[in-house]
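Researcher: Go.
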Amino acid sequence: MKALISAVLLALSSAVNAQAPPKLMFQTDQGWSPRVNVPADTVLAYGLDSTLPARIADWRAHGYRVGVMTALAWGRYPRYLAQAGDALGDETQQAAGGRALLHDGPQVPYFVPTPRYVAFLADGVREALEAGAESVYLEEPEFWADAGWSPAFKQAWLTHFGTPWQPPDASLPAQAHASQLKVALYRDAVAQACAQVHAWGQAHGRAVACNVATHSLLNYAQWRIVSPQHAFVDAGVDGVVGQVWTGTARAPNTYRGVQGERPFATAFLEFGALHDLARTLDVPAWWLADPVEDNPAHIWRDYRDNWQATLVASLMWPGNAGFEVLPWPNRIFDLTATYPDEHGGRHAIPAAYQRVLQTVFHALDAMPGTGQWQVAGTRGLGVLTSDGLMAQRAAPATSDPLLGEVHGLALPLLLHGMPVQPVSVEQLAQHADTLAQQRVLLWSQQGQGALEAKTAARLADWVRTGGALLRVDDAATLGDAVHDALFEALGVTPEAGTLAPVGRGVVGWLRATPVALSHASDGADRLRTFVQQAAARIALPWQTASALVMQRGPYVIAAGLQVPQEDAIAPTVLNGRYLDLLQSDLPELQRVVLQPGDHRLLLDLDATHDASPRLLAAGGRTTALERANDHLRFALDGIEGRGADDAASVVLALPEAPHAVTLEGKPLDKTHAVYRNGLLRLRVPAHARWQQLDIALAGGR
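Model: Structure:
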């Protein structure tokens, strides 16, 4: 039976490859082992080295679909280092003074994508496809803002612009040119690689997707990295993996003058920016979360708390094709992967955390693609952003290190329960209906630059049909551009702090900078008051909330917003019947109080009135629930356990207590099959092999 199940799943995975994108995937540079038998349908075999064909075959043999993922801006490519030889230094990204920018020592530099380097990547991807990879994921097309001094970059400057290279820090125009070139180089590298991927697929009668894995615009800007982002339009990109995880979400920001980490809020805005990117490119997206992170110095409790925050934030941006449930499973599940705990010891992943992860992965596999807000403040609020955020992060004029240009506008609304959405000016140029769901937009050119006339005209048209556009800039930021394209398109320059009618909408100018507002103790109040006034002028109801709660099918995703005491309002309370999927024992709850900093993934037991038997939650992969002759049957597999503590939990809804439960043909201990309140709770040994469960229903034998 086990061999048959594995063969059927492998055959099905091959059959659907041409039609269905992955739902759950993960990336690894290692082969399969029982401890990394991750409950997902697709593995991304990482890197282009001599072991890749064997790794692809290994994962396929264990029932996974296999794609290949490889780094663009950096990578462990000894074969290419040998090809480049003495020219490697010229092709390494360099800062002023010739300082080499390295990812992990001199053997893993950040590359300038020269024609030779791009050809190497394209050849490596072709070899991966020939070895059996079904899809391609090009990761992290990145140029450091401080880069721009290497000989290869100087040559690319001459080729691209037709003029001699200038030091990027020599002037604002020079820095702008450097950023444009960085974007163009990696945009063209991806376009060339994807063109070859598609050509290979066409020659072999296959539809091969070429995807990009990228951080958000907001994170790249804050981390001082330049990347193509919206410039990938028409570059042949078929999908986007949105890389938000604890490492990016703990990037600090400032609110009411207090600098700190706000992982949920930061991740929410990052996923919002990536949602905007995927919509601009009109491609499917997958949201990443990481149960640990790159920094190994944190304790297990910290990793778990921040994973929950980013997970919940990702689930509040529905419409994605699926999830990258984790990167690097070996650093999470290997028994040698130990991290500190709050007591000063070190140990491998706690059993409870391992059970929660697999239960959540099962829920993500069933997660509906749409959702509705159940608790939220005023909706339809957006903050305009631009890829220009990345172009002002290095000398001669650097913007706010904590990205107050965006956070100063977004956090005062988000932390009061208003699900504010980043809206890129680049999307306005691609999609005429971008603003259909927006009622109020905030814009600042601080750290971003002025709007183009075409974009300003589109915004003006939107205002005339009933929108409210609020500009947040001081006179020093605007300089001589007070009468710029935006105000000219609107035909009005409002007095500072006032709202002026334009058609059926309004335009306002708050004479302050977002950065200054973020640092002022009353800055958030000033901004909210101005937005509230604008909302009133366009008859948009004003509402705040202490939590954000979204429902996606039977799943309830909730976050209690963590704000200073002066912002606190009464906590949100959810009443009903829920399974708490972020607790290892899956407790049933009737009342959930969302305190500040709470992050919940709940299964609403009353979301459906279907009385038939249903599989509600499971700590691993499951086959479809089959019913025949008063028996329910399904199979379960997952990560190999270390002992009884690593057992998998399974919960089913049954109208009556079952007559019997067997595992692999043997009765399951009655203490591991408990029926109460319409729920059958099973405790099953955790194994990296398919185990058959059979439930004889009441009246059956």
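Model: Residues 2-369 form a domain with the TIM Barrel fold (CATH 3.20.20.80).
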